[in-house]
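Archive maintenance. Older records in this collection stored only the sequence; we are now back-filling the structure field for every entry so that each record is complete. The fields below show one back-filled record exactly as it appears after the update. Entries are processed alphabetically, and MFS transporter is next in the queue.

ARCHIVE ENTRY
Title: MFS transporter
Organism field: Pantoea trifolii
Length field: 460
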Amino acid sequence: MPSTVAQDGLPIPQRYGAIITIALGIMMAVLDGAIANVALPTIARELNASPAESIWIVNAYQIAIVISLLSLSFLGDMLGYRRVYQVGLALFIATSLFCALSSSLNTLTVARVLQGFGGAALMSVNTALIRIIYPQRFLGRGMAINSLIVAVSSAAGPTVAAAILSVASWKWLFLINIPLGIVALWLALRFLPDNPQKAKQQKFDVPSAVMNALFFGLLITALSGFSQGQNGWLIVAELVALVLVGIVFVRRQLAMPVPLLPVDLLRIPIFSLSIGTSICSFCAQMLAMVALPFFLQNVLGRDEVATGLLLTPWPLATMVMAPIAGRLIEKFHAGLLGGLGLAMFAAGLFLLALLPTQPTDGDIIWRMMLCGAGFGLFQSPNNHTIITAAPRNRSGGASGMLGTARLVGQSSGAALVALMFNLFNDSGTHASLLLAGSFASVAAVVSLARMTQTRQTVES
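Back-filled structure field:
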């Protein structure tokens, strides 16, 4: 097994093996968050479940990730990122088989919860590992690869699912993880480095972990219930419980020397500004991603195939821009790059909302490319800032907050689309795109505000 890394980054052969296992693990974890959506009608039919009940196949996975992300990143700081990642991979492989063998909705839901814990282990420490894998001067390139994998996997989920379902049953959505996971686990055992320093003074606080799970679980459940039109009083009760748990949780974290919810890191201005930028930007992204298919089909009259093709320029532009942004971070301030990228993103969203009544495909494509390129220019530098603003022995906490910010932003965006549809009916897609542009504009301003800040952390 690889020894603890004392030097700045890994030597080239080991670096390539380590980054490939990170890419494979994150690709599977992100894909499985989106891949089941397309298959829900088929799965519900085969398992004799109603459409409303089948939603839990998606929700169970997402909630499991959100409630465990920070706890697992905390354990990564304590026990080692490599160990958490390897255990996460093994759990993800085993639970993917469990999902494929499930014969009832209840069994599949339990399997998806357990698979979500495996996915959370991968997401919780992936950027912390990249900080060890790459030399400091090339860290932006490593972050760019990670951002690229997340962006492309998120966008490609429906396409991959449709391709698999065209030739095989829904069970293969999960079975395909097994050979990929075995390769990733073999690479992880061979190439992943251990922490240069472990936060041995940290103590895992079980009450904090329980309150963390309750807080984020209530948040995602309330947002999901709101988006699905659940009983208003139930949502109000969840929000009241959320506030009460949140107050107790935060007060407990403020009293701890090394908190599970990294409020100490949030006191670093450039870190908290970057987290805020991330939440707003991913909220804008999800608003657009959910609203655009409705916009293209219901408003512009495109069919399903044309809709898929017209959405493709977005992730393609992100794929092109992310590696470029990873190199630009070596020369320019992340606040500037993020601000420019988010301004491009906002402009693309507003231009999509203001399309003419009968636009050509070209009119749509260049606006999609502007959105994708802007998002690609922002994401890598933002992730780089979040992870490097923390001391090295708190990289797990920073990595966990990065993933939590993304998931909270995406969940909020999905709920806001439902609100726009309820408030504006046929104009809901336009309202969603305008709101997405507004969130992206706020994110751009917050990102530019980071240019007045310097990293206030001391490597410890």
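Update note: The CA atoms of residues 335 and 447 lie 5 Å apart. The radius of gyration is 21 Å.
Entry marked complete.
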